Amino acid sequence: MELLRFATAGSVDDGKSTLIGRLLYDSKAIFEDQMESIERVSEQRGAEQADLALLTDGLRAEREQGITIDVAYRYFATPKRKFIIADTPGHIQYTRNMVTGASTADLALILVDARNGVIEQSRRHSFLATLLRIPHLVVCINKMDLVDYDRDRFEEVKAEFREFAMKLDVTDLTFVPISALHGDNVVDKSANMTWYEGPSLLHHLEEVHIASDRNLIDVRFPVQYVIRPQTDEHHDYRGYAGTMAGGVLKPGDDVVALPSGFESRVKSIETYDGPVDEAFAPMAVTVTLEDNIDISRGDMLCRPRNQPDVAQDLDAMVCWMSDTATLSPRTKLGIKHTTRSARAMVKDLHYKLDVNTLHRDESAEALTLNEIGRVTLRTTNPLFFDEYRRNRSTGSFILIDEATNATVGAGMILGESQA
């Protein structure tokens, strides 16, 4: 069954957690004891009905403040598809959490309050979703019950968002009028909005086409682990385990190992359940080759005539995630890219990006917590990469504070630096 990962984003109080709760509740994905607990807490607070937002706002601070702080992951399935939901925070001070939750998403749900229209946070989250190259955007215009399910108001907000979206690189944009509180157009079509001719939100999530979003052209197999059983029965066995990052690989395909440049041919592709005829992203497999060549963790298998870029100087967009350190020129960090690790130094900070106005501040001297900017990095070892817009797996990396081993930044590669 196909898996769809989607992230929710929007301003505080736009109803993200309530929407997810409604999706889970109406699709029968909640256990009875969970529902009883939610009803009990809601009653203690004096709420007239069960607060479905409590399904995702699990931290005590979130429940006390009525906001989402950390990314909450929820899992559910319908007969057509499996889903992983990342409920990401709406507040600007948790931008890093939103970037983390949305980095692997196939689709982003942007919630907009029908009364307020497109506000600053709506724009920020939409920009971050397109910066992270999330292929599908669904704008849920929520709280339609509070504007009497007015079609004209829906069209006004829709036009307002479209005008802003023209500045962004959006490939697929869909609008759904909903009331998360009452369930209108969430799982079932709403009787209150007969003028809306599109599908319900869940129906759209079940049907949206995501198979072609992944790069099935460029074969990329970063080696994570070399399997050598060292037994008499398997003394000649050498398998390379990892997760496909792009393309389709089959037994008999010619491959080249980077960085050595040695060529061979795929002998077999194995999984936990046995051999397979082909592997594609994001399958975890073990590949064996017809020749014994020197390959270790951090190396990459690809096609001889279709190889990634190889460079030590990179241009990248970085989201800074540390609340104790800043990112500035000459900063030295660890970098992890696919399965390859190296050390990196910031050569230049070109500009800091205001994610609310899209203004580029070229006078910025450093990035602080939750800020995003364009930098040039120099790594100690060459990285094998594709531009992030071409392959999100081989075009992304994390930055690590070597003293604490904490992840302090996440980056998207724009290309090789020409400076």
Write the layout of secondary structure elements.
Elements (H helix, E strand, L loop, with lengths): L2 E8 L5 H11 L5 H13 L15 H6 L6 E6 L4 E6 L7 H8 L4 E7 L6 H12 L4 E7 L8 H15 L7 E5 L23 H7 L13 E2 L2 E3 L11 E5 L4 E2 L4 E5 L4 E9 L2 E2 L3 E2 L3 E6 L10 E3 L6 E12 L11 E6 L2 E14 L6 E2 L10 E14 L10 E6 L4 E11 L3
Parallel strand pairs: 1-3, 1-4, 4-5, 5-6
Antiparallel strand pairs: 2-3, 7-16, 8-9, 9-15, 10-14, 11-12, 11-16, 12-13, 12-15, 17-21, 17-23, 18-19, 18-22, 19-20, 19-21, 22-23
Count of separate DSSP helical elements: 7
Runs in which pLDDT lies below 50 for 5 or more consecutive residues are 59-69
The proportion of strand residues reads 25-35%
CATH fold descriptor of the largest domain? Rossmann fold
Largest sheet: 8 strands, antiparallel
Average pLDDT, all residues: 87
Global morphology: globular
Q: What is the annotated CATH architecture of the largest domain?
A: 3-Layer(aba) Sandwich
User: How many domains comprise the coordinates?
Assistant: 3
The number of distinct β-strands equals: 23
Structural class: alpha+beta
CATH superfamily of the largest domain: P-loop containing nucleotide triphosphate hydrolases
Would you list the SSEs in sequence order as H and E?
EHHHEEHEHEHEHEEEEEEEEEEEEEEEEE
Distance between the termini: 46 Å
Instruction: State the share of residues found in helices, binned by percent.
Output: 10-25%
For the record, the CATH class of the largest domain is: Alpha Beta
CA radius of gyration is 23 Å
